[in-house]
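Workshop exercise sheet. Pairs work together: one partner reads the sequence aloud, the other fills in the structure field after running the prediction. Swap roles for the next sheet.
Pair: D.N. / O.F.
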Amino acid sequence: MVRLRTAALPLALAVAVAITAPAATARQAATPVPFPTPATLPAATPRAGEPLAVVATTGILADFVRQVGGERVAVGTILPANADPHDFEPAPEDLVAVEDAAVVVQHGLGLDEWADDLIDNAGTDAAVVVATEGIATLASEDEEFAEGDPHVWFDPTRVRTMVDTIAAGLTAADPDGGASYAARAAAYQADLDALDAAIQRRIATIPEERRKLVTNHDALAYFADRYGLTVVGTVIPSLDTRAEPSAREIDALLGLIEAEGVTAIFAENTTSPDLAARLAEDAGVTIVDDLYTDSLGDEGSGADTYLGLMQTDTGVIVAALGGDAEAA
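Structure field:
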């Protein structure tokens, strides 16, 4: 993968982006053959008293907690749907939620570092579970992500480890629920295995020469690594969406798109697609602006759970790259 240097966006380029009409957006309207139906998870045994109060820093983590905890847990989420965790700032009510929690589930790896101050300022006695602890990460050249690329959820096999970590954290806080948490975690991991196999089948239908990605920011390295795609480059030259490209980096990326025969640029729900659309127009390729990457979508979006996010993104990517998004 080619990673482009971070620098300020020149005024001339910014103006060009602002005044140039973006390329037509290619949204994938076709409905693929459904992914495997998730299994009905075992019912959680009732908990004496109120459910265990858990706060998760992101919606993706909150979904994992709900899958593992069932009715034994009451889960709150700090990061709203469609929000960017890289530049998020917690609100006063988030401090109150952490103060009242028995367990706080944090992503780690620098993705939600704002949660460190939130937990410290809350003065809470809550157990803090770092969901990515012990996960093998892909190396990052960004100094602020020295522990590795934080976007580990794009590999369902790594999510299996996150689910085990969450189940262990819930059990430590609520030992009586240990059997329930273990059973539900195992059932959900079977869903993750089915998801992984279904994604592989769909990716395999993309012609090999078209299995190339250019994304708005560097979020899909784990997806590419797991499923045999190549990340040619990124519009935002960083794992962090706040970075900005220079004119030289833009020119270099355009050259790569042409040289590699890239057919689409992918933008996501948490960042503006304007610059990606301008680049797609200049390169004469498709802009696909409906990926879900760092955040779940709104309820009813189809990407309001982790499984839904992965299914939605896979369908969009496979269709845009010329594969069969309906592969059974």
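Discussion prompt: The beta strands are 52-56, 73-77, 103-106, 127-130, 212-215, 230-234, 264-268, 286-291. What would you look at next?
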